[in-house]
Write a structure and sequence with these properties.
heterodimer; A: 186 residues; B: mainly alpha
Chain lengths: 186, 137
């Protein structure tokens, strides 16, 4: 059993497990949406002094913070106890493209050191890339009223047209970045 | 004690995101280059099962574990915010290969720089809150 869990999980396992996570949260009387936590952080930090948007009872959102602590622990458990040493099975053309961006062995690590290691973070370019990326995700998610979990999974499951528009936006932005802007950030 | 179940489901979520490699920038890059079915399969199958779930909940009247109605809040019928906000989100998503769920799980995998990414994402959310009344929705 443990050996099977250690293998990389194919899409037809990953997708259904995510759907199960959404169902359990609904069954617990909550909603699946991760970016709300960033708003909660702002509220906890006293953001209510600066905007009504952060003036709400953040204690009612504590369940979501606990959920996120679980998600961090899940990453730890998967890496420590369910690790397999084979490289990721990436598309061959992608491997070549990513090499040109400076990743020497694409797929050996889920998170390449050449992009996310401390050495990179301590360069101006790496620092700006990570900070800008985080900022855009946090700003965009709240502007759009949700992220991948809130719109692409929860919203689309409930056949919400606004969520479809948001997901089209996610892809529009993602495609512009990947095809046209990304090389400038490396 | 009432929080334990959220912690456990969170662990499942963190494991599935790590083991199906959603947290990897490489998978996100591959997705936006249309060179792999993997991410589309994950999102697609989750949504198909999600649609069935929501239908069953609405028709069969499945209740929460407390016996109360499961409430789905419709998204506000605005459009500018979804397309503009969504595009801004997508630019960031492709740049760092992580959306708000993976950002957290990545810390658990030992990618500590994501602590700073989360701080930056929180600042982004804060700036949105400040500018909200001035932005078109």
């Amino acid at each position: 059993m443990l050996e099977i869990l250690k293998e990389p999980w194919p899409w037809y396992v990953g997708g259904p497990v995510i759907a199960l996570v959404m169902f359990l949260l609904l069954y617990f009387g909550k909603n699946f949406g991760l970016s709300s936590n960033l708003r909660t952080f702002c509220a906890i930090g006293g953001g209510g002094k600066y905007s009504d948007f952060f003036r709400f009872n953040w204690r009612s959102q504590m369940w979501n913070i606990v959920f996120v602590l679980g998600a961090i622990s899940g990453g730890f458990i998967a890496t420590q106890f369910l690790k397999n040493d084979e490289p990721m099975k990436l598309n061959a053309e992608i491997v070549e493209e990513v090499k040109e961006l400076g990743v020497e062995t694409p797929g050996e690590l889920l998170v390449p050191d050449e992009l996310f290691g401390w050495d990179v973070f301590l360069t101006w370019k790496g620092f700006l890339r990570l900070m800008l990326g985080g900022f855009l995700v946090g700003f965009g998610a709240r502007y759009a009223g949700g992220c991948t979990s809130g719109h692409a999974i929860s919203g689309l499951s409930n056949l919400q047209l606004p969520s479809l528009v948001a997901v089209i936006g996610f892809f529009l932005g993602g495609l512009i970045m990947t095809w046209f802007l990304l090389p400038y950030f490396f | 004690m009432k929080f334990v179940k959220f912690f456990l489901v969170g662990i499942v979520f963190g494991i599935v995101m790590t083991k199906s490699e959603i947290i990897s920038w490489l998978r996100i890059y591959e997705m936006f280059k249309f060179k792999s079915f993997h991410m589309y399969g994950i999102i697609g199958s989750a949504v198909v099962l999600g649609i069935i779930q929501v239908l069953i909940i609405k028709k069969g009247r499945i209740k929460t574990m407390y016996g109360t109605e499961i409430i789905f809040t419709p998204k506000a019928k605005q459009w500018t915010r979804y397309i503009v906000g969504g595009t801004i989100f997508g630019l960031g998503w492709a740049l760092i290969g992580a959306c708000p769920g993976p950002m957290f799980t990545l810390i658990g995998t030992g990618a500590w720089v994501f602590l700073f990414v989360i701080v930056s994402a929180t600042i982004g959310t804060f700036v949105y809150g400040i500018l909200r009344d001035k932005l078109p929705h």
